[in-house]
Structure formats: structure tokens, C-alpha cells
Q: What sequence folds into this?
């Protein structure tokens, strides 16, 4: 009977979706259990240590927070600016089409290659050293295509009529963009930006390549300081043979996933809160 | 009542300054867009520059025809194939997991699931795609490998199988999400045409919808392969650091990406041949992923939905 | 300074007399997209402080024509324009004309009400002045309040919104939104008001209010009203122009055009034989 076969096929397809989801739920649960032993306020406020039970994520947490702020500060102006150019000025100009293709290809470049670029350009050529600012600049280049694409989507969602209304009032193109289009697109741009930054904060490979240090017992005192980050600390714990550090790695992962979950929740909140439009 | 000189409007003050400022703003925005071009040029220059210096010393022949990659040894060998084999092995295993399961999942989302389920499941997939790969790497090493060792005889602590499987789960959301888009781009009348001929639901999906979405699905698979090839942390953590020309998934190997991490973690003096190896491997990686992305874009262009 | 609320006078059709000066003169205007012409060799006069209605079947080029009058047409990629449009005898397509400044003298109201969603009612009215930087520095708060009240009064919206000027523009009804858009256009103090099917998204009651408003506005402004609704043209305009396939078939005082059209095609259209 065909109804029976349909049912089996549907179940098969549903299983294909459910299986990986189930595996992941299991893995998350496993890591949570593994990390629970180490999770405590002290874990958040301690420096790394040779003794697993005393080691904490403070420098990584601070490093990741600083990286997030600096990456946003670098990637957003350029990314949003580029998106405005491509969406509002580019039209069918050849240069805009070429930049678009370029952005699409950059989005597919492995993150570790951005690390190599950062190492050669920021760390060495520009002489920034293995510093916080070199890390932020590298991550900024990495998420630039994501910021550009999501900002363009937000701009595209602004009705054409609003631009026309601005222009018909005698505003110039830029006046219309700045006062009408950007405010209307702001929630979408912000949501995309938060997601891009959360992507940057989970990156490990580029930071390893530019030379973030895992074992650091002080907090960075400026943009030129050596630094560590949450993923770097987790990675160093994962790589240790002693089983005790596996608990640290798991606890670090729980902290990092919570941080990213918070960022994602913030992004969703921004989208829902402002997409109803209007009130201010 | 009003002056008849048109060029002087009511708010004529802004008269001639505006066009200049407008032009400056546009140029500034173009410069922002130019950063992405500079990035590409930078990547190419950095990789090509160091690679040329590398080949001047090593020679292309050794790179392409030697079967060993031991640049950090006292008697270094520079054959790229072991790293490519490692990358191919882990990516291949990942694709074996991600493509069939991802495609079936996409069929479920696009053709079979009720709308409500879809609205919950698709964002969930996107959340999974946002989990840092470091976390997947830790899963592979700390959980999956020990579990597999109980069923797979001779499985080493570092191996290609475990990270390959986990990587498959990692790229599955990408395959599912893009294939779902491709399936949904198939026009409804094509399905209705098949139903009107008396074809059942499953035959319609298998014979009409999937073939129509073929190029979109191919693009999804190609993009996923590009992601797998460039994936770093899972393999750096769980696959080992032993470049080996093998297809045995049970033994330690090393991928191109993992090698870059290995060198970066060690103390390699700048300017030495060993330090150049990461640029050469990076260049190979860049070219490989670029080709895969270009192929995927071409496939998308021929898809019925068009666009990217 | 502040106009009294508009009396709801019954619309009367006034023929343009020969002594009324011409505000806008369209001369041999060609417009299109790429190689496709939409408006062809069109010549037309709009007398000062009169309402000119433009009617014709969809696709006849009404909207394109009116968008050529404030140079909005050229913003569409691939748009082409030829010929000239004279505002007070000065060609708006002349080389030295800044289209941005032109649009401050020729306001526009669109088919769908498009108040700025992120701005309050008050800010929507002031939008044109804020966008162009005209309010920067200088003006005192009472003066700005005066601008808001005057524009809203002229748009016959003041009494309905004066107690909630801080509310979002989007919180108004469709008809109120459209009058807000008219107030927004008036606050820039234009001389000409282009209205591109301003009632097509509105219900009959809101439409009647806009038509009444048009009747009052013509005492101060020259109005070009595009409409697909012949009754509206008959009710609200002094002159009517009939367009077909991008060409002007006939332009005459509204009453005459609807009672004794001189062209067969006009007659066919207004009697409902096509369109």
C-alpha cells in the first residue's frame, strides 16, 4: 500500500533529522555533566593553573569580551558602510558586482587562512605583535563578509517607498539613508551584527595562528597586550593528557556556550522587539 | 510670492555644498566596500609571496611527488600528499554522513513536515550550525572516540573516523538547510502535475522534486565539502598530528588545517623554511576551497530558483 | 500665519481661465525605461493654483509623467528622460538645476501612505526639514511647534492628532497616514504638490476627506493629481488630462472633458468602453 510506504519514508526522513539532533543533545548533556564538577564562581574568577582544580577562565573571559568589543568596533563600520554602498549606491555598476562576487568568495575562505593573513599582516608587517588588537583585526576581517551580507538583507527589507518619500521631500540620497533607511534597518543590522560577533567569539584556529597564548596569569592592560581567549583556554585544556583537565575543558565549553546563547538570545530579542515597528 | 530662480529653493543655503558632501560620502562608503577587495588581495599576496620563496628552496617536484611530509624533522621531506590524503579522508567520512542524512532531513522539512514543525526545526538547525567547531572537536576526542573504541577494533586514540563522523554532524545543518531551500524552490505545479497523473507522494518526491532541485542540492553538497576541507579545530583536536598517506580511518593522520595549527603552536623561528610551510599549505587550502566555492556558485546559477 | 480649519465646501469645478499664469509647462517630454518609451512627446500646461487630474488606463504613463515633474523618474535604474519641464519658465532639466532642491519646491504624495515608521507624528511632519538640515540650529521650539501645527492643520489632521503628536506615525489609520504624508510634504513649503493616486489604498470615507482637502489646498498650491478613478477626477480637479499609451489625447477643463470630449478615444474611455 502506498500510504504505508509514505509513512515509512516520512519516518526515515524524520529520523535523519532527529538522529543528529539527538546525538548532539546527548553530547551537550555529556559535556554538561563532565563540566558540572568544575563549574563554580571560582572557575570564572581564577587564572589558569597547573592544578586542574584551581584553574579558571578569567583571562579567557576577559580576553573574549575585549575581542568581541574591538572586533565589533572594527567590523561594523566597514561592514555596514560596504553594505550601504552595495545596496544603495552600487546598482548595476560593474565595480559593485565585482565586490559582491569577492565578498561571496571571502565568505567561503577557511578561518585558519584568515589567521595566516593576520599573522603576516597585523602581527608582522604592521608590527602589532601577538596582541589583542591583532586578534581583533583578524577576526574583524573574518566576519566582515557576514556583516555585509546580513546588513544588505536588512537594508533590502526597508520598503522602497520610504526612500522615495525622503527623496521627494528634497533630501539628498545620503540624508535619506542616514535619517530614514538606517533607522528603519537598525534592528536587522544589529541582529546580524550580534550573530556575526558571536561567530567570531567561537573562533579558535585564527587566534592560534596569530599566536594567542593559552597560559596567561594577568589581564591585558591595553590593545597591544598579549592575550588569551575562552576558546584558546578550552583548547589547551582539551589537548592535555591528564583526565582532570577534561573537566576544565567541559566547564569552559559550558561557559562559552552560555555566553553565545546569551548573544543569540539578545539577537532574537532585538529582532522581535523592534520588528513590530513604530514605537520609540 | 516665490523667487522664480529655480536653483534657489526655500532652503537655498545648502545649495552647492551638498553635491560635494554627497560625493565624499559615496567615496567613503566605496572605500569600506574596498576593504573586502584589499582582504582578498592581501590573502593572495601573502600566500603567494611566501609560497614562491618556499618553492625556490624546495622545488615543485618534491612538493608534488614526494610521499612524505616531515618538514619539522631534522631531515625534512615536503610531499603534500599525506596532508591532502588526511583532509580527503576526514572530509569524505563527513560527507558520507552529512549528504544522505542532510538530504533526507531536507526532504522531511520541505515536503513532509507540518508547517509548525518546520518553523521550529529550521531555526534549531541554524543554532546548531552556530556551535563553535572547537566544541565539536572536544566531543570527538572526549566522548565519541572512547565510545567508538568499544566497537571498532584497533581504533587509535587519534584517528580519522571519529572527527570525520562528528564533522559530518557539524555540516549536516548546512546541507539540510540549503537543500531545503532548493526543494522549496521547485514550483508547486510540478508536484501537482505528478499527483494528477496518479503518482504517490514518495514517487513524486523521488522522481520529480529531487531531480528538479538537483543543481541546488549539488551546490549544497559542494559548499558543505568546502566547509569540511577548511574545518580546523575538530581535526586538530581529534585526528592527530601524523601526516600519513593512508585511507585507514582508524589510525592517526594529519589534515592540512591541523598542520597549520601544529606549526603555529610550536616554536618555529620566523623566516625559516619550516615557518614558510604554513603559507604553502594555506595556499593549497585556499585554492582548494575557492575552487569548491566557485563550483557551488556555478551550480546555484543553473538552479531553478536562480540567485544565491 | 495659521490657516483656519478647512471648511467642508462642496467641490465646484472651476475652468481655468486664460489669465491664470502657467506654473508647470511640460514641453515635448519623452520618458521611458531603457529602450521602452513610456511617455511620448508630451506637452501640457499646469496653471498656478489649480488642480490638474491625469487619467488614463493603467500602464498609460500617468505615474511616469508625474514622476518626471519632480525628477523622481530618473532615480530608477535605466530610466531615460528627454524634452523639458518648465517650472516658472525655468527648465528643471537644465544643467544647473539641483534635483534635490527642486524636490523641495515640488512636493509629492505617494499611492501607499508611507510615514516614516521610526518617527513620531510630530517628527514625521518635521522630517523634510530635519532630513535636509533646515532645522539645524537657530529656530526656537515655539517656531517649530508652529510649523507642525500649521502643516497638520493644512492637511486637515491637526484636530485628530494634536493630543498625541508623540505617537508613532504608523499608529494612525490609513487615511490619517496619508494626510500625515500630505502634512509632511506641506511642511517643506512646496509650491507644487504631486499626488500619485493618493487614495488608491484608502476606503471611501478617507478618500472623501482627501478630496475635500485637495479642494482647500488648491487655494495655496498647484496640484497634479494622478488617479485611476474618473469620478475622483471629476469631483476634485479643475482640469483633466487624458493619457493613452504615453501620449496626451486631450486636456481640457474637467467639466468639458467629461461632458463633451473632443476626441473619440476620450469618450470611449470615460464612457467605459475600455480601460
A:
Amino acid at each position: 500500500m502506498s500510504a504505508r510506504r509514505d509513512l515509512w519514508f516520512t519516518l526515515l526522513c524524520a529520523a535523519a533529522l532527529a538522529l543528529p539532533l539527538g546525538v548532539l543533545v546527548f553530547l551537550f548533556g555529556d559535556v554538561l555533566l563532565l563540566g558540572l564538577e568544575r563549574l563554580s564562581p571560582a572557575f570564572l574568577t581564577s587564572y589558569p593553573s597547573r592544578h586542574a582544580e584551581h584553574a579558571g577562565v578569567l583571562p579567557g573571559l576577559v580576553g573574549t569580551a575585549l575581542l568581541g568589543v574591538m572586533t565589533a568596533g572594527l567590523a561594523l563600520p566597514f561592514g555596514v558602510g560596504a553594505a550601504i554602498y552595495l545596496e544603495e549606491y552600487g546598482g548595476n555598476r560593474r565595480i559593485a558586482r565585482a565586490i559582491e562576487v569577492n565578498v561571496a568568495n571571502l565568505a567561503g575562505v577557511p578561518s585558519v587562512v584568515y589567521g595566516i593573513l593576520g599573522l603576516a599582516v597585523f602581527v608582522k608587517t604592521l608590527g602589532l605583535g601577538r596582541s589583542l588588537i591583532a586578534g581583533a583585526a583578524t577576526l574583524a576581517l573574518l566576519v566582515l563578509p557576514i556583516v555585509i551580507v546580513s546588513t544588505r538583507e536588512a537594508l533590502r527589507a526597508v520598503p522602497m517607498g520610504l526612500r522615495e518619500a525622503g527623496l521627494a521631500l528634497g533630501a539628498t540620497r545620503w540624508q535619506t539613508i542616514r535619517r530614514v533607511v538606517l533607522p528603519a534597518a537598525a534592528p536587522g543590522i544589529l541582529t546580524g551584527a550580534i550573530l556575526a560577533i558571536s561567530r567570531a567569539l567561537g573562533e579558535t584556529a585564527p587566534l592560534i595562528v596569530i599566536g594567542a597564548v593559552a597560559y596567561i596569569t594577568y589581564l591585558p592592560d591595553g590593545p597591544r597586550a598579549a592575550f588569551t581567549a575562552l576558546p584558546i583556554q578550552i583548547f589547551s585544556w582539551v589537548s592535555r593528557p591528564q583526565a582532570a583537565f577534561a573537566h576544565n575543558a567541559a566547564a569552559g565549553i559550558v561557559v562559552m556556550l552560555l555566553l553565545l546563547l546569551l548573544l543569540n538570545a539578545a539577537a532574537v530579542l532585538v529582532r522581535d522587539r523592534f520588528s513590530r515597528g513604530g514605537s520609540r | 510670492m516665490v523667487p522664480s530662480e529655480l536653483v534657489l529653493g526655500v532652503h537655498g543655503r545648502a545649495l552647492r555644498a551638498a553635491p560635494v558632501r554627497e560625493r565624499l560620502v559615496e567615496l567613503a562608503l566605496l572605500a569600506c566596500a574596498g576593504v573586502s577587495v584589499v582582504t582578498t588581495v592581501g590573502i593572495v599576496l601573502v600566500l603567494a609571496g611566501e609560497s614562491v620563496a618556499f618553492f625556490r628552496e624546495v622545488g615543485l617536484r618534491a612538493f608534488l611527488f614526494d610521499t612524505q611530509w616531515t618538514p619539522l624533522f631534522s631531515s625534512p621531506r615536503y610531499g603534500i600528499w599525506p596532508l591532502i590524503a588526511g583532509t580527503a579522508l576526514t572530509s569524505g567520512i563527513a560527507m558520507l554522513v552529512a549528504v544522505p542524512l542532510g538530504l533526507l532531513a531536507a526532504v522531511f522539512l520541505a515536503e513532509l513536515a507540518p508547517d509548525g514543525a518546520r518553523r521550529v526545526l529550521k531555526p534549531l538547525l541554524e543554532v546548531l550550525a552556530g556551535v563553535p567547531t572547537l566544541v565539536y572537536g572536544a566531543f570527538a576526542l572526549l566522548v565519541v572516540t572512547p565510545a567508538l573504541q568499544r566497537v571498532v577494533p584497533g581504533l587509535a586514540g587519534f584517528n580519522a573516523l571519529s572527527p570525520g563522523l562528528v564533522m559530518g554532524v557539524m555540516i549536516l545543518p548546512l546541507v539540510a538547510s540549503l537543500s531545503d531551500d532548493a526543494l522549496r524552490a521547485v514550483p508547486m505545479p510540478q508536484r501537482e502535475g505528478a499527483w494528477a497523473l496518479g503518482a504517490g507522494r514518495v514517487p513524486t518526491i523521488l522522481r520529480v522534486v529531487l531531480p528538479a532541485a538537483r543543481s541546488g542540492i549539488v551546490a549544497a553538497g559542494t559548499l558543505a565539502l568546502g566547509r569540511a576541507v577548511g574545518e580546523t579545530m575538530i581535526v586538530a583536536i581529534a585526528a592527530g598530528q601524523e601526516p600519513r598517506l593512508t585511507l585507514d580511518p582508524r589510525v592517526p593522520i594529519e589534515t592540512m588545517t591541523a598542520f597549520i595549527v601544529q606549526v603555529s603552536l610550536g616554536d618555529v623561528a620566523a623566516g625559516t623554511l619550516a615557518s614558510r610551510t604554513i603559507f604553502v599549505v594555506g595556499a593549497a587550502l585556499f585554492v582548494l576551497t575557492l575552487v569548491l566555492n566557485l563550483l557551488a556558485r556555478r551550480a546555484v546559477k543553473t538552479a531553478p530558483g536562480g540567485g544565491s | 500665519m495659521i490657516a483656519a480649519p478647512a471648511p467642508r465646501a462642496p467641490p465646484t469645478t472651476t475652468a481655468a481661465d486664460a489669465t491664470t499664469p502657467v506654473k508647470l509647462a511640460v514641453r515635448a517630454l519623452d520618458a521611458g525605461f531603457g529602450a521602452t518609451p513610456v511617455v511620448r512627446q508630451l506637452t501640457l500646461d499646469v496653471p498656478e493654483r489649480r488642480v490638474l487630474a491625469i487619467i488614463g488606463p493603467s500602464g498609460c504613463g500617468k505615474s511616469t509623467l508625474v514622476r518626471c515633474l519632480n525628477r523622481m523618474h530618473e532615480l530608477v535604474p535605466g530610466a531615460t528622460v528627454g524634452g523639458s519641464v518648465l517650472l516658472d519658465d525655468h527648465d528643471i532639466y537644465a544643467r544647473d538645476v539641483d534635483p534635490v532642491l527642486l524636490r523641495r519646491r515640488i512636493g509629492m504624495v505617494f499611492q501607499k501612505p508611507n510615514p516614516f515608521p521610526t518617527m513620531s507624528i510630530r517628527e514625521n511632519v518635521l522630517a523634510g526639514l530635519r532630513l535636509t538640515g533646515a532645522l539645524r540650529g537657530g529656530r526656537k521650539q515655539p517656531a517649530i511647534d508652529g510649523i507642525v501645527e500649521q502643516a497638520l492643520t493644512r492637511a486637515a489632521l491637526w484636530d485628530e492628532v494634536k493630543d498625541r503628536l508623540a505617537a508613532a506615525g504608523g499608529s494612525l489609520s490609513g487615511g490619517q497616514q496619508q494626510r500625515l504624508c500630505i502634512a509632511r510634504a506641506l511642511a517643506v513649503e512646496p509650491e507644487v504638490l504631486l499626488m500619485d493616486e493618493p487614495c488608491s489604498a484608502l476606503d471611501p470615507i478617507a478618500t472623501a476627506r482627501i478630496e475635500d482637502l485637495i479642494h482647500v489646498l488648491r487655494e495655496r498650491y498647484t496640484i497634479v493629481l494622478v488617479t485611476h478613478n474618473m469620478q475622483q477626477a471629476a469631483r476634485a480637479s479643475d482640469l483633466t488630462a487624458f493619457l493613452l499609451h504615453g501620449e496626451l489625447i486631450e486636456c481640457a477643463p474637467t467639466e468639458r472633458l467629461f461632458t463633451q470630449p473632443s476626441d473619440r478615444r476620450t469618450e470611449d474611455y470615460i464612457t467605459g468602453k475600455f480601460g
